[in-house]
Design goal:
Strand 6, helix 8 (about 195-205) and strand 7 form a beta-alpha-beta unit. The two termini are about 20 Å apart. It is globular, with a radius of gyration of 21 Å. Strands 1, 2, 3, 6, 7 and 8 form a six-stranded parallel β-sheet that branches. The chain is built from nine helices and eight strands. The chain has about 250 residues and is α/β, with parallel strands linked by helices. It has helices at about 1-20, 30-50, 80-90, 100-105, 110-115, 135-150, 170-180, 195-205, 225-235; strands at about 70-75, 95-100, 120-125, 160, 180, 185-190, 215, 240. Bound molecules: zinc ion (ZN). Zinc ion (ZN) binds near residues 75 and 163.
């Protein structure tokens, strides 16, 4: 948030200087265009890369030097999520699930199981629509509240992961008003695009570091198989699995 306002101030100052000095130093007003383009690029990068903490300060890693990591799964609960949880339970691993509100209906039993097995839950919006980032503030907030109300039947969570990891000032206002905490990641697996399990596993293992928060998706049919290989490999490297501090 601070970064967003610093950038705004800096760019407005640029326009003020251009306005005052364009005569004196013969600077063309056309310089306003690349200046605007640069501002837009920074804005979009800040919105897209949650780790930059541009609009919202997110928790992108655990503050620890110990070899602890967190597995996070987005977009459930879906039928595929059940096998993911079975696999985690088989290996004795607890993880964090960022759930989409509209997927919860009809999967109440699964939600109960998540709770009973000690996994953590977080809000991933009700609709997870692409248009979410363009909606007016009130609609963004209502969508987040709708998911939160469903989650409250199972847990008392303050964790929120923005759909697509995209943030903007409207999301910042909504989560501040609702007292939610944005959770990002610092290991992006690209599990939705890399289908080769060995490659995917290598990509994740290469990025392991103390406090890592790993982004995964429980809607993928190959996720249980990946976890079956990945979890022992992570442990072999001396890492243990942790949850988020409340
Ligand atoms: Zn998502």
């Amino acid at each position: 948030m601070l970064k967003f306002w610093i950038t705004n101030t800096f760019f407005i100052a640029g326009y003020v200087l251009l306005f005052y000095y364009h005569d004196q130093y013969d600077i063309s007003y056309w310089w306003g265009l690349p200046w605007m383009l640069l501002y837009s690029l920074i804005y979009f990068a800040g919105s897209y890369f949650i780790g930059l903490n541009y609009h919202v300060k997110s928790l992108n890693r655990l503050r620890t030097k110990e070899k602890k990591i967190v597995l996070t799964f987005d977009d459930g609960p879906l039928p595929e999520s059940e096998r993911v949880v079975e696999m985690l339970n088989k290996h004795g691993v607890k993880a964090v699930f960022f759930l989409i509100g509209k997927n919860i209906e009809g999967r109440e039993h699964f939600m109960q199981q998540l709770k009973e097995h000690g996994h953590q839950m977080g809000n991933h919006s009700f609709s997870h629509r692409v248009a979410f980032d363009f909606w007016p503030s009130a609609q963004v907030e209502a969508d987040i509240v709708q998911c939160q109300q469903l989650l409250e039947k199972y847990c008392d969570t303050k964790f929120f992961r923005p759909p697509f990891g995209v943030t903007n000032p409207k999301i910042r206002r909504a989560i501040n008003r609702l007292g939610l905490r944005s959770i990002g990641w610092n290991v992006r697996s690209y599990d939705t695009s890399i289908r080769d399990l060995d490659k995917l596993q290598q990509r994740i293992l290469k990025q392991l570091k103390p406090g890592a928060i790993i982004l995964l998706h429980d809607r993928l049919t190959y996720m249980p198989e990946l976890l079956d290989q990945l979890i022992p490999e992570i442990r072999r490297r001396g890492y243990s699995f942790s949850l988020l501090d409340k």
